[in-house]
Amino acid sequence: MKVMVGDTVVITQQTGNPIGIVTRRSGTMLTVRLPLKGNTLERVSRADVEPLALWLADARRRQTKFSNTLSLVGQSSLSELVGVFGYSTDVKMQRTSLGSVVRQLERAGLDVNPTTGSWDRHAPFVLSLKKALIDPSPEEDDAQDSEPSQGFALPQPFWPSALGLSQDREVAFLRALTGAEPLLALLYLPERRETADWLQATWEGVMGWAYRSAQRFVWTGRGENGAPAVVRGSSHLLHGYLKPSLLDSEGPRLRDAPHALNLIALQRDREAPVDLSRLLAAWPGPIFEFDATAIAGGGVPVSQLLLMVGGKPALATEAVVSELSPLKLVLWSREASAQGAAQAMNSWGDLLTRTPLSRFKGSNESSTSLSLKARLAQWLLVRNPEASLQFEQHRIEVLDDEGDEQEVIRTDLHVEGQGTFEVETLVGSGPMESFYHRKIFSRRKPDEPFSLVVPGEALLWAGPFLADIAHHLGEGGSVLVPVAGAAFASLEARALVENASEVKDPEEAARLESPVEKSERRDDALPLLDDVAGYASVKERIRRDIVWPEQRGALLRNVSRASGILFFGPPGCGKSLLARAIAGELEQEVRLLSPSDLRGPYVGWGQRMIREQFDWVVEQEKRMLVLDELDAVARSRRSGDMHSDEKADVNELLVQLDRAGRLRRIIVGTTNFLGALDEAVIRSGRFGRFVPVPPPDLDEAVEIVTHYLSRLARAETAAADRVPSAVELKAILSPLFARNLVDQRFFSGSDLEAAVTESYLGCALGKAPSLEQSLGPVHLTVEALAAALERGPRSVSKRSIQRFLTETRRHCGASLADLLAGRFEAQTRAP
């Protein structure tokens, strides 16, 4: 029994066996308060004390008298029991004292029951033994240490199906737990109160635990969204998601951002949303429905799995679990799993004295992995004291095309005669196909035993996959899971259902695919400033005036600043892209809103929708809003044809901007008509930082065209060696820019992209003999690109440039306006 702060212990190494109450723990040393010695404090070793609750449990187990002053079978009162544990027993005896004593006795395997049914201080009590569950006897532990691993099978059905999920959705659900998409899980509660009482809390506990464990498989908690979020609630959260809510930002909300799990328990007939089909269409991720209305048992498969996770597969029989509370098992298994993960490190010194180790720790191994390796080594030495353990054995497996070494694979543990042992915590190993191929079958040697060692927690979400791995390993392999004591048990093989498995044949894939996996950036990741082609001066201004101050918020916290950042300039010049790049640089979650997102079909809806969006941005840090085409929402209230509801929208926007500013959130606006905005919106303190975005000059245009050409070259149907060089592009663009000055019309960034697309499609159509035939590589010619640029549009007019320079002079100063004007002039003089 683990000794905790507040426990009463008996000091066995002192005369009279005095009792003390633990006030502090520091490693193996305890600080105890001695009530019978004037409450003096004394430091003693953990080895010199025993919990008093265990002494009472031993007396009850042997059915002997504990002492002459305390009866365990109904002749003593609760106050006398509390007094033996060193707590005050006066009339004002605190309920917490009795609660602490009862909890200690329960951890020792005893139930405390007052004979009168009342917990009055004078009420007599009886101690009764619980069924053995958590703490096995020392004899059982010692016997189990030396035995070979025993097999155990996953419960059938697995826990999601046992809690009402359709069995054909089970593998999809387990895969979704490791994904980034937001999940929505609905639990339809049964009418029977005795089932509903344990079902909802057990479902929420297992789901949340499995989700956080699964998220670590592919995602380590870093990124724009922080740690995985688990939201629990009832049906009102569904209604709040389907329609605009007037609740303030303090209220609970569904999380539809990545890496979020939403758990909703409801009665199907009384609380289900009116329009479930609309919910299915609106929710951005998968939805899983757990129909628990037909559950008749007491959650036997769930309890069996929790016993396996906690290290007690031998107890996972229907006869045992039918007497246990699934909810209590969730709490116990979490604690038992964590204690088991750290157990081996307590006897690490003993391992070092028993066998010499030249190397133990690999690169970037976590404490869980090291503990599993130490525990595995102890178990192997108990089974065979003469075993030779070779940790981190190097095996050169992969060669490149020239025959040189490409990757060195290290074996976690190799034991002569017993084969290879790979320890995997399943943290950062995903996706599942990669785990199969890279971590298992690419490391397995032919004709040699292979064992995969995983923590018990992995059974919660990866149990079917681990059983499938055992199936593919066959007789020469096994999947080992730590169990009680210092032993390991093997997971019985079970193949995934054919129509549910998306995992290819692992041995075939291991031969065909390289185990070296290239890390690629996600397509949906936010852009960085370096990902934006051209606009060098604008990007430098953003880094200096926006990114640098925001990244040093702790140093500049007392410096007042406006929350609003306003990008202005001619259309098609990348204002929205640059705004999103700010979110990428600051690693913030962002919403890009168009005017329709802030307007409603009825009077008053605009204010409500503006408030809803700002509620989202202020409810937690690392969030920002981008308001595209801001002039459509915040135009000047001086306009004579402006409706009163539109003026109310502007007023609401002003209030929300002040609110976001107080909380130091970032609000970015983009506009092509800065002069059309209401003066109160762009005053200092609201949108106080202005970023002019001009059309690209010649050098920037070359960079932009090169960017879009390179993107085409990376496609499977393009030829990378046909991308024109910067010199060729400059030769094409220079006369066009000179002519643009004469015509007073200029290229925008989107004009250049459109020209590249048009030239590429023209080359593709010219190559195809007919529209029905498929294309091979498309060779984009310099002549086609020059022709597309020649006849392409010039979206930026002279009037737009004059307005842009005037607005720059007014809001950013005459020096920057003159610099931009000179830049246009210099641009036109290019050869």
UniProtKB/TrEMBL annotation:
Keyword line: ATP-binding, Nucleotide-binding
Pfam annotation, one family: AAA
Residue ranges occupied by any AAA+ ATPase domain in the UniProt entry: 561-697
Organism in which the protein naturally occurs: Myxococcus llanfairpwllgwyngyllgogerychwyrndrobwllllantysiliogogogochensis
Name the record gives this protein: ATP-binding protein
Gene Ontology molecular-function annotations: ATP binding; ATP hydrolysis activity
PANTHER family, sorted: AAA+ ATPASE DOMAIN-CONTAINING PROTEIN, AAA-FAMILY ATPASE
InterPro entries for the chain: AAA+_ATPase, AAA_ATPase_domain, ATPase_AAA_core, ATPase_AAA_CS, P-loop_NTPase
Assigned protein family: Belongs to the AAA ATPase family.
